[in-house]
Design goal:
Layout: H1 5-15, E1 20-24, E2 27-30, H2 31-47, E3 68-72, H3 77-88, E4 92-95, H4 102-111, E5 114-120, H5 124-130, E6 139-143, E7 156-157, H6 158-163, E8 179-183, E9 193-197, H7 198-205, H8 219-227, E10 232-235, H9 242-253, E11 257-260, H10 269-279, E12 283-286, H11 289-301, E13 311-314, H12 321-330, E14 335-342, E15 346-353, E16 363-366, E17 370-373, E18 389-394, E19 400-401, H13 405-411, E20 414-415, E21 418-421, E22 425-429, E23 435-440, E24 444-447, E25 450-453, H14 454-461, E26 467-477, E27 481-490, H15 498-506, E28 517-520, H16 534-543
Parallel strand pairs: 1-11, 3-4, 3-5, 5-6, 6-7, 10-11, 10-12, 12-13, 13-14, 27-28
Antiparallel strand pairs: 1-2, 8-9, 9-19, 14-15, 15-16, 16-23, 17-18, 18-21, 18-22, 20-21, 22-23, 24-25, 26-27
Length: about 550
Amino acid sequence: MDFNLAQLQEAVAETVPDRECLVFRERRFSFGEVTDRTRRLANFLLDRDLGLCRERDELQPWESGQDHLALYLHNGNEYLEAMLGAYKARVAPFNVNYRYVEQELIYLLRDARARGIVYAATFAPTLDKIRSDLPDLEILIQVADDSGNPLLSGAVDYEAALASSSADRPDLQWSPDDLYILYTGGTTGTPKGVLWRQADIFVTAMGGRRMDGTEYPDLESIVERARAGGQRSVPCPPFMHGASHWVAFLNLFAGHTVVVQNEVRHLDPDDILSTVEREKANGLLIGGDAFARPLLDQLRRKSYDLSSMRVLASGGAPLAKGYKKEFLEHIPQVMLLDAIGSSESGAQGQHVSTKATGAETGKFAPNPGTCVLSEDLARVLAPGDPEIGWFARKGRVPLGYLGDPDKTTRTFPEIDGVRYTVPGDRARTGADGIIEVYGRDSATITSGGEKIFAEEVEEALKHHPAVYDAVVAGRPSERWGQEVVAIVQLREGVQVSGEELREECGRHIARYKHPKAFVFVEKVVRSPSGKADYRWAKLKAEGG
């Protein structure tokens, strides 16, 4: 059975209306209150003629028949409410990277054909500068914050918009074909809007499968799961990235409480750990090593009561093996969950580490439909096949990229009549069915005829205690074609030579994969979700 995300929220809230749903700073909203607020936003949008234009069966896979609402926000209850409110109006919300400069924002909002935007007051001056370049942008909803910026001309305050609108359920027939849109981060190329059916993203990324991998057969079984819920989770990476709001919705649809840390503009490890302690959270989501290192340093400086924690998950970027070991020393009862996936695939697999099993990284138990395709995209590779192919999924996959039929065809090919998603990671399937993922092909370095995957070199470097963060890129070489360059951020007050770092690499990877050069920087640039910015790394490598 297929489900619409608005339908799911309404059903869960009807079952546990008084349970705490969203917590942000001093504000606490029950499931019933979130229903009220999201209906009000939906009716506000509908009253301004935003909504459905054409049904899905009239469209090509790369086309949208709905109006689009941009979300230009830091984390907070308003982000998740705006997504749900838009779904209830049959409007398709999409994520805006709040780090973008003016020209990037203009590109994104034009590409998405945004008719409305919900934005934080702190971004009002930037938005005001580019409004004249966005003639389609009609509806502006401003979320108040501590910036003190006044309402833009023609804009409506978020809370005023809700207060002025009806809390009645919108008189619409929600469809499982309604769109979920997720823009890619643009760390390896131009951002593209991935179009999903809501029914498909629910199953692949938002808790639509049971633990045994089977899909929930009906709404009653989902409601029954929610009735037994009540856990508390802190997804701390920015909601503008898929992994974080996927975890938030996974918890909400299971009847759990989602807690947002107080400081949402930058990573504050004390605030995150204090939030877990104060709220007695059972789960914490982080974004790879960029989150792990500051949290581990903070755990050395200060003691916290983290006895409530059961799961520490990393989404968007994997955790280094050494960092996993450190977490298990500080929080021995926790289960460390590395989840792997992408905007184009949803969740594809996971790796679990515990005190009993020990720490490992890079290998994942596949979710249903996950597989490895051959280099030529002609066949599915069997377990044990030595070929390094393409990490892929079949079954519930996206429709395509907004407005881009050519890239839709390339990324979502058909093999023997079955449609796959191939986001660009390289992988190999072991004889036991476990998949080893090597990283993005766009970040692969071919040196001396050998393929070298950036992430395995980065993992080797991070074993050295002097390394705070590292990212690896290739640069042209007359001798090798390309050569490996490591861009390294050292721990404060520590010095180390390139030769010492090569020696550390020698303990973990073959010699031909070792960096030929090192560029030491004050700070490695990553996205707010923790993903490496390989375009930046390539520029550093070529200039270093």
